[in-house]
From TrEMBL:
GO terms for molecular function: ABC-type transporter activity; ATP binding; ATP hydrolysis activity. This is ABC transmembrane type-1 domain-containing protein. Pfam families: ABC_membrane, ABC_tran. It comes from Mugilogobius chulae. Residues 61-220 form the ABC transmembrane type-1 domain.
Amino acid sequence: MTSANVTQELDRDFYLWIFGGLTAATIFLGFFRNIIMFYMFVKSAQTLHTRMFSSILRTPCFLLILGVVAVAASVIPLILVPVSVLFLVFIFIRRYFLRTSRNVKRIEATTRSPVFSHLSSSLHGLWTIRAFGATEKFQTLFDAHQDLHSAAFFLLLTTSRWFAVRLDALCAIFVMATTFGCLLLRDQMDAGSVGLALSYAVSLIGMFQWGVRQSAELENMMTSVERLVEYTKLESEAPWETNKKPPPDWPNKGLVTFDEVSFSYSSEGPVVLHKLKAMFRPREKVGIVGRTGAGKSSLVSALFRLSEPKGKIYIDGVLTSELGLHDLRQKMSIIPQDPVLFTGTMRKNLDPFNQHTDEP
């Protein structure tokens, strides 16, 4: 083997090592790049999610539409006259459409809920429905819900198509005005300017319709936000905790006093307990009897303040209306009439807050 062959062999090994190193570096850097990109994508998605509402409100589609109009106006200045008229017509049509579409969207959302609730309840009670032979009855009821929702959904689609047709008409008028403007000013314009104006005017049709329909769809989707806001404004219970704290060993006797207590389950509902006066002494076993709806369970509801009663209820001399709901309900227990199988151990159910030890 000559020295030239040895040198050639060493050069080949050298280049193989370089090739192997570059391959390993490519794999490592590619893996590292994917990890960095995945982390960046996750952080970007979180950031975009928090800024979604403001981003939708500030969508740049209108800026793109203005850019198309600006290009056409720079070539044909007279185009601003029909554009101003078309813009006013567009504002009028959009407002007219939104007054109808918002209400139609509310109707569609209202009629959609019974379809899903009926389907869910039917699936959960499928064996009972078959056992009593009520399949056709439930199918008829489902068809009625579905027909009502389909009618509302079809009405929503027709209103959207009505709006789309008029947007297409406005865009067609704009393209026609641009074309006639090019014909009138053909002696003052070159071929490049005419082509630029016409191409931008034609591209406006799809862009303009998409942008306007998205803005209108945003208004329609805000009906869901309205329903969510209504839930945030529901009447809430009394404060969970107040400055008034009961003694640590309260209640230690079991003296319960009702003083002119009136109770109703809602502010507009009927009064089920009317100026009740009673006293339950410690270690007494009291049985309350009465027909259905006489107000037996309402006594427990008044004790737990499921709805705020009128009058005064004392437990071991402490006025319950001055306590926070957490302090009040934490100190009392109830065994419901309905049999319930609780999860967890017996000890966990007897002492859910771990306030006692296992020592007697």
